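User: Quick one: structure for sequence A, then sequence B.

Assistant: Sequence A:
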Amino acid sequence: MWIIFNKLIPVKGFWMMTLWFMIFVREDTAHGRNIPERIYRHERRHWHQVLQIMITSFALFLTTWLIYDYNPWWWLLWVASYYAVYVACWLIEILLPPYNMAYKNICFETECQYTQDDPDYSRHFWNHWFGWFKYISNKKYPPKR
């Protein structure tokens, strides 16, 4: 996992952002390139989510390719599988009230918020495979402010 400090990604208003296997940090908000452990754990949870969905989609693409023998160009889709699932969850949350809380209500964000204070959560990565499923219901786990 790479940590990249820059001035463009993420957009203003956000501090850090995980894209595939990289964590982007805005230089103007990085406090001298010191990242608080709690925030780092939050972004690392996102990295685990990316990894889980990409491994699963890779296995799915491999299985379907072996069965149906389709064009190998379809293999490029597994790279974007996490973001397809993320956007689908976000679009569903936009349709559900409260509408202005769609980003905070996404199950991926809710899992990261509820587990970012647990330093042992990442060590047991395989025990929490698709742990964000239990955060899909917003009534049980309201977003933390």
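Sequence B:
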Amino acid sequence: DHPAFRPLEITIGPDGAIYVLDWFNPIIGHYQASFRHPSRDKTHGRVWRITAKQRPLVKPPDLTTNSVRLHDLFTYLRHPEGWVRKQAKRRLSEMKTNAVIPALRQWLSETTAAAEDLEHLRYEALGVFESHDVVEPSLLSKLLSARDPYARAYATCVVRRWSDRLPDALALLANNVRDEHPRVRMEAVTALSHIPSPQSIVIAM
């Protein structure tokens, strides 16, 4: 309840704890006090770590070493912790395209999983293709018809970004603009607004 407590940002850390960035400044406004006011603290702040009682923290894998193999990074795309999946995609984005993309295609073709897990894995894999700016129509098509509406919405965003290199971008969006989920329909209309064609207006309407 201290008046200087100013939480600005909250995120989940690699250990599973909740981290809160606390500006801890007695002046919160811009013009109510001079920028040269001595109470403006431009140096200090606090970071709070919130953990669950009597529960151990998560031990994330070390993805910084050069010994991490491509196959390991692909496997981490299905890790239950979002932070690990994000860092695996980050490492993959920094590697050479001609090494990552063929290996990822082969790994996806050989991977078996339950339907929901496979959809999520395709969702993560599509992000890797995006980071290397490699258009992958077959994977995109599968996600556009996924059972998870948020996977379909994400795939619809990708259609917008790849529309100049997809021969049937408008046809793909014509399906999703009628989707049962409002988020998917919204992303489809947004994507259509980025494609300079009179047909985009017709489909959106």
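The chain has a mean pLDDT of 92. The radius of gyration is 22 Å.

User: Thanks, that's what I needed.
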